[in-house]
Amino acid sequence: MRVLGIDPGYAIVGWGVVEYAGNRFAPVDFGAVCTDAGVPFERRLDEVYTGIKEVIARTQPEVLAIEKLFYQHNQTTVIGVAEARGVILLAAAQAGLPIYEYTPMQVKQAVTGYGKAVKKQVQEMTRVLLHLPAVPKPDDTADALAMAITFCHTNGNQLNRYTRRVAGPI
């Protein structure tokens, strides 16, 4: 199964596509959609939407895993991230992708086995699971890959049924 993980934002949207089969992960592609601070906000949202649509069209994921929005200290930031999430979810819905949302604690638990792991531990375990030479940069990209891994770990039984249905009886 091919999973697109997204770490939402409006300055940097991390994304990572992971192939998952037989309890093994393989990175397909990853990167970030970046927008400039000096650009009007509505234009930045358009850039995020267009960038994610392009990633979906190019990588052909079967599902989207995205970070669930949680309140941060800066109310202005959380509203902007919510609006960016909206255009990301729109792009996924238009592509017919099922959408799964995870909290940061769920990601930490799924990737490291410890719900209170620090960010660096999650990023290092993501690197190890995907057999990458280094933790992807920017951090948002590594976080997006961790999101994809979280979907695979938390939906393993569903994926096994999906694989058998597509591949046919053994």
- The portion of residues forming beta strands comes to 15-25%
Unreliable stretches covering 5 or more consecutive residues = 159-170
Q: Characterize the quaternary organization of these chains.
A: single chain
Radius of gyration: 16 Å
Largest sheet report: 5 strands, mixed
Please render the helix and strand layout as text.
Blueprint (H helix, E strand, L loop, with lengths): L1 E6 L4 E10 L2 E11 L6 H19 L3 E5 L7 H20 L4 E4 L1 H9 L6 H11 L9 H16 L1 H12 L3
Parallel strand pairs: 1-4, 4-5
Antiparallel strand pairs: 1-2, 2-3
Helix pairs in contact: 1-2, 3-4, 3-5, 4-5
Write a structural description.
There is one protein chain. The chain has helices spanning 41-59, 75-94, 104-112, 119-129, 139-154, 156-167; strands at 2-7, 12-21, 24-34, 63-67, 99-102. The model is unreliable at 159-170 (pLDDT under 50). Helix 1 (41-59) runs parallel beside helix 2 and helix 3 (104-112) crosses helix 5. It is built from 6 helices and 5 strands; from the N terminus they run βββαβαβαααα. The longest helix has 20 residues, at 75-94. The chain has a 5-stranded mixed β-sheet. 51% of the residues lie in helices and 21% in strands. The chain has 170 residues and is α/β, with parallel strands linked by helices.
